[in-house]
Design brief:
The protein has helices spanning 17-26, 49-58, 77-83, 98-107, 154-166, 182-190, 200-203, 208-226, and strands at 4-7, 31-37, 63-69, 87-91, 111-116, 134-138, 173-177, 195-198. By secondary structure, it is of the alpha/beta class. Strands 1-8-7-6-5-4-3-2 form an eight-stranded parallel beta sheet. The longest helix is centred in the last third of the chain and has 19 residues, at 208-226. It starts with a strand and ends with a helix. The structure holds D-xylitol-5-phosphate (DX5) and zinc ion. D-xylitol-5-phosphate (DX5) binds at residues 8, 10-11, 33, 35, 67, 140, 142-147, 177-180, 197-201.
């Protein structure tokens, strides 16, 4: 299971976005996480496909992982893929046909991801596992960066890892997002997560590369011990 670190652009300095994207690329991070908020599914607005296109233009080699916090992600999949999304994540709570959404993402050769809010039971994800390349557990209520990690999500991560392995999907990527720092990333790794989104924690670092390397090291060690 490969540990991946994904800085979330939501926490960047919007006064110099191109430089911030280059900073992520230079940090050795595995991907850039882009949080799309529609002011309906969550009470906040962020940015749209043009930001994904900017990331592709500025750092074409940096993988673009796009998290759609939208009531109707199905209406926007094509636009985000055309803009350069390489993984697209839709919420299981979205107001659309989740089966069709995941299948449509894969049909375009893009990695399919399914996301759940902290309060959603993990069993709601089980039927979709065969259609997912990655499953994202929100470890805060989606909508804002800089919130405190919710430890009650940890048993859901462990349950999904076990469920997926038992059904022959041992290679499923499990991602966490919200309140991630060295300590909370280590806890999530212990419970079976292998992809770590971090916004405010990584962007506030003077040396993002050192922090990415340290987070990767901590998580690899915990995954080795418990995995
Ligand atoms: C929250 C977003 C997260 C957010 C994480 O709705 O999905 O990706 O940027 O931010 P931090 O790491 O600051 O909690
Ligand atoms: Zn996110």
């Amino acid at each position: 299971m490969k540990v991946q670190i994904l800085p979330s652009l939501l926490a960047a300095d919007y006064g110099c976005l191109a430089d911030e994207i280059r900073r992520v690329a230079a940090s050795g991070a595995d991907a850039l996480h882009l949080d799309i908020m529609d002011a309906h599914f969550v009470p906040n607005l962020s940015f749209g496909p043009d930001m994904v296109a900017l990331a592709r233009r500025v750092s074409p080699g940096l993988f673009r992982d796009v998290h759609l916090m939208m009531t109707r992600p199905d209406l926007y999949l094509e636009r985000f893929i055309d803009a350069g999304a390489q993984a697209l994540q839709i919420h299981v709570e979205a107001d659309c046909d989740v089966w069709q959404g995941l299948a449509a993402i894969r049909r375009r050769g893009v990695r399919s991801g399914l996301v759940s809010r902290p309060q959603t039971p993990v069993t709601a994800l089980y039927p979709y596992v065969p259609l997912c390349d990655e499953v994202l557990f929100m470890t805060v209520n989606p909508g804002y960066g800089g919130q405190a990690f919710m430890g009650e999500v940890l048993p859901k991560i462990a349950a999904l890892r076990q469920h997926a392995a038992a059904r022959g999907f041992g290679g499923l990527d499990i991602m966490v997002d919200g309140g991630i720092n060295f300590e909370t990333a280590a806890l999530c790794a212990e419970h079976g997560a292998n992809q770590f989104v971090a916004g405010s924690f990584l962007f506030k670092q003077q040396d993002m590369g050192a922090a990415v390397a340290q987070m990767r090291g901590v998580c690899e060690q915990r995954l080795r011990v418990t995995g």
